[in-house]
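// run 5 | inverse folding | seed 20
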């Protein structure tokens, strides 16, 4: 059996085998019920019978039959060693189940997560973009099943799942720790994902205790994303700044052998401004005669090695190797189990177009399914104004307050890009304008 209770939007995101709540008697009873159902309808192919378990009474109830392999079938393969795809093809060809499948035994514990391009902090809305970096770490060894790589474009035409990641270990706790570590060490950047959220669930004490129910997220509120930390930003910023410094020296066409920032007089330290979320920091550094760098007022850094995609650096006696990918003004860093995307803040900002006051913009590319208002119409707070469809989900754009629809810029059936202006909303006196909400 497989346990698939950890869900968001009524869709599975973490699956495991065996289930932490199924004991031998329930396992036997569920198996008998599944086989009886298959025999009753004359079903002779691979399939999955799903049940719901009442935690209070320990009763289980039939939910549905999936007449195919499911996304989570690898966890069964990991604990049995049976190739389920091969078995499905054998059955389809009229052959009997293989002897090794018929005599399968279970060993250890396997857990799978579904890595999605989505924003947990924004209601798990799907995300799009180009994967500037997607490089799984060699350790710990886990099973990666993915159709993307660095440079892949994540659009709106398909489901936003990027990969299935599966860990197998002798115990459930070991499998969870191995899988969380593998996710944290994935060098990733360019697209918002649920990676941090998945790792948070896998390390949550309630999950490790086997408290896996369909309302797990609502009851336990695991961390949705890694929050920016001022100290962490300073450290990551220093590493990024010195990587940029070395890149600049390697690409210099004049006086490339001179020390970084060298002048024949005393000058201010070099400075790089970086942003992480809503935080910004200014990293100041100065090259020393011994080849080290003074960072800030009292930190010392030594760069042991530099490549176009990594840096081996010692900062205040702590040495680490960071994987770094540059995508425009963004630098994606992975150090150990920490990943961050830093934004290089230009010294001179070119003004962009002004935002429309009260403008409702599309949170992602999609198709306009329905426009439920007309210009001049009064609406109440929470009333749906526009319905978008993207990545197999509907998103209702709701009024943030009582107000009036001043303009409608789209119509049903229209395809819109991320950030496209959908309509202009004017809040009534005493209410605040807003960008609307999606659900």
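// decoded
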């Amino acid at each position: 059996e497989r346990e698939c209770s950890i869900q968001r939007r009524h869709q599975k995101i973490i699956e495991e085998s065996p289930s932490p709540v199924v004991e031998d008697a329930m396992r036997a009873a569920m198996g008998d019920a599944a086989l009886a159902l298959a025999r009753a309808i004359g079903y002779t192919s691979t399939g999955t019978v799903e049940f719901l378990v009442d935690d209070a009474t320990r009763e289980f109830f039939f939910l549905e039959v999936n007449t195919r392999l499911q996304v989570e079938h690898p966890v069964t393969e990991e604990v049995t060693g049976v190739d389920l795809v091969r078995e499905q093809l054998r059955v389809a060809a009229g052959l009997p189940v293989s002897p090794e499948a018929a005599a399968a035994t279970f060993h250890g514990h396997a857990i799978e997560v579904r890595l999605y391009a989505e924003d947990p902090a924004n209601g798990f809305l799907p995300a799009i973009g180009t994967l500037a970096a997607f490089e799984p770490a060699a350790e710990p060894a886990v099973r990666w099943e993915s159709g993307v790589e660095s440079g892949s474009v994540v659009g709106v035409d398909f489901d936003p799942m990027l990969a299935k990641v599966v860990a197998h270990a002798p115990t459930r706790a070991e499998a969870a720790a191995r899988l969380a570590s593998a996710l944290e060490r994935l060098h990733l950047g360019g697209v918002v994902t649920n990676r941090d959220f998945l790792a948070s669930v896998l390390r949550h004490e309630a999950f490790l205790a086997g408290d896996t129910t369909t309302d797990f997220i609502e009851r336990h509120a695991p961390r949705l994303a890694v929050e920016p930390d001022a100290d962490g930003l300073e450290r990551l910023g220093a590493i990024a700044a010195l990587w940029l410094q070395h890149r600049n020296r390697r690409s210099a066409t004049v006086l490339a052998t001179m020390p970084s920032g060298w002048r024949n007089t005393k000058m201010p330290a070099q400075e790089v401004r970086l942003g992480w979320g809503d935080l910004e920091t200014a990293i100041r550094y100065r090259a020393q005669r011994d080849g080290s760098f003074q960072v800030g007022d009292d930190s010392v850094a030594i760069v042991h090695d530099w490549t176009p995609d990594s840096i081996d650096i010692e900062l205040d006696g702590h040495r680490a190797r960071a994987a770094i990918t540059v995508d425009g003004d963004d630098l994606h860093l992975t150090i150990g189990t920490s990943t961050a995307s830093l934004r290089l803040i230009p010294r001179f900002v070119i003004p962009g177009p002004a935002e429309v006051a009260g403008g409702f913009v599309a949170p992602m590319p999609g198709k306009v399914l329905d426009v439920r208002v007309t210009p001049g119409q009064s609406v109440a707070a929470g009333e749906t104004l526009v319905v978008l469809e993207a990545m197999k989900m509907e998103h209702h754009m709701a009024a943030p307050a009582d107000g009036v629809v001043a303009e409608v810029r789209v119509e049903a059936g229209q395809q819109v890009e991320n950030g496209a202006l959908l309509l202009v909303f004017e809040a009534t006196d005493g209410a605040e304008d807003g960008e609307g909400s999606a659900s």
